[in-house]
Design brief:
Blueprint (H helix, E strand, L loop, with lengths): L4 H8 L2 H11 L3 H23 L4 H10 L9 H6 L3 H16 L1 H15 L3 H25 L4 H9 L2 H7 L10 H4 L13 H4 L3 H19 L3 H5 L6 H6 L6 H22 L4 H25 L4 H25 L6 H15 L6
Helix pairs in contact: 1-8, 2-3, 3-7, 3-8, 3-10, 4-9, 6-7, 6-8, 6-17, 6-19, 7-8, 7-17, 16-17, 16-18, 17-19, 18-19
Amino acid sequence: MSFNLVDLIKNELGDVVIDQVSSLLGEPKESTENAVNGSVAGILDGLLTSSSKEGGAAKLANTLSQMDDGLLGNFASMLSGGDHSSLIGTGTKLLGSLMGNGAISKIATAIAGFSGIKSKSATSLIGLVAPLILSVIRKKMSSDNLDANGLLSMLQGQKDNISKAMPAGMLGITDNSKTETYQTPRTETTQGPRYGKLLWIPLLLLIGLLSYFLLPKLLPYDSVLDAPLTSDTDDTISAIDNEPSDYVNIGSDLGNIVNSVTDTLSTVTDADTATKAAVQISEATSKISTLSEVFNKLPGPAKSTISSLAENKISTLESHINKVVTIPGVGPILKPSLDTLMQTLTSFSVS
């Protein structure tokens, strides 16, 4: 018997929940309802994309198997009972692990764009509804006794339903063509199969010669390797100010983002300020994830310098985290988002 996963999820998100979410976010009900519907389609599309990759379905199945069964049917009471901050942290962490924080950022940006709610509200909304969406999928997986392959097949069978539910402003945000590993483009030749491969030989030789003679002049990385590394962002960036612009920008942006997180943590004094900080930390994590994607494309020496900067920033940040999580009522709220943040920062390691 066919079913519609989108409808199953929306049945759990009735008017009462929409009213509660609207109140929590401080957004108009109509805009919130549009944003909720968009987030359901966007998250499902993102899960379908990530599960279609190698090992993705197994990872999703494992995550679902470890989730608590008690959320369905209690979602509205959890929101009214003050558990929304915990839901945001849990949802953001789960989706970040499954889809990547970059995907979360793209979905949030698209939701804010077409619904009219604030970017911060869109990020919080994704964290709120994610546990519910995953719980519905878990229930379906359990009732139908699906393994990882069956789970993937089920999600693939919902592709049309997800596409129909996707708002126009969100089409293509998790397109496989934008997230798959880079593939070498096909090269067509008019020489036919007999000579096609031979044409690569002189071309590769020419590229090798140009790299040997010109690359050292274009990328003087020796000065980077000799530059002293300190815990101060400005000193580190000044040591590489002659490097490619992406290189300098990554170091500067990373330092600024981590500094902003440190400033945010300094404002936390109780559960209410921790809830606001959790949203800001999730946004910072998304930005750091985007920087990480560019970092992975840098040459080795460039990575080493940025990695050293990240290590220094992590060390400083950890001392602030250790202090703030000891404040009564703060740890359970901030820990999920902080764990995701620190895990994302480790992507800058080259060891």
